[in-house]
Amino acid sequence: MEDDWTLNLTRFLGRSPDTAEAEDLRRYQLSLVEQGVSSTTLNAIITGLRFFFEVTLDRPTAIKKIRHVYEPRKLPEILSLDEVTRLLQAAGSLKYQAALGVAYGAGLRAKEIVHLKVTDIDSERMLIRVEQGNGQRDRQAMLSPALLRILRARWREGRAEHKLLPGFLRRTQIHTRTIEALCHYL
How many CB atoms lie within 10 A of CB 149? Predict the structure, then answer.
């Protein structure tokens, strides 16, 4: 499948895509489904078509029969306690164990982990404060006793003054790419 939906649509129609009518676009969508195009790719193509016909050509009626494809959400795979233990041990240093522990145990994103401060850990209420997380919203995540032990050991080891997981140079922070690479290679 070509990456350029305009070229694909031109080939499908046998003429310029700006001449397409609503029925032509519906048939094009059906042909993409028959070709086995993933729902993610199909929805990206539909978004492009929608912009092209509604905004660029000012022909919103041409796209009226096209709908985004519903993509059912899949439940994430849950690791067993033994698998989580092996994953954390494979991380090596306590800093990386803490980063992975927060990612998996509290469900934080890499961007949220790198901005964690020592003061964001509330051991009395067993919560982690996440400032400006996804959607630029503050939220709280649960803190398990096992994760708290790892974070305390990391704090004692590193004596971090401000950042919970400082970078290689003391005054910097760990980078999101470091956490992503850690997840990828383990």
Answer: 11
Domain ranges of the chain: 5-63, 81-185
With a CB cutoff of 8 Å and minimum separation 6, the contacts of 13 are 19, 20, 24, 28
User: H helices within 35-107, ranges in order?
Assistant: 39-50, 81-90, 94-106
Q: What are phi and psi of 86, to 5 degrees?
A: -65, -40
Confidence (pTM): 0.57
Kindly tell me if the per-residue pLDDT of 125 is higher than 90: yes
Is 107 within 8 Å of 123 (Cβ atoms)?
A: no
- pLDDT reading at 46 higher than 90: yes
pLDDT of amino acid 2: 46
Under a CB-based contact definition with an 8 Å cutoff, are residues 2 and 8 in contact?
A: yes
Q: How many CB atoms lie within 10 A of CB 136?
A: 7
DSSP state of 8: H
More confident residue, 161 or 99: 99
pLDDT at position 126: 93
- Where do the DSSP E strands lie in the chain? 121-122, 127-130, 139-142
**CATH number of the domain at 81-185, please?**
1.10.443.10
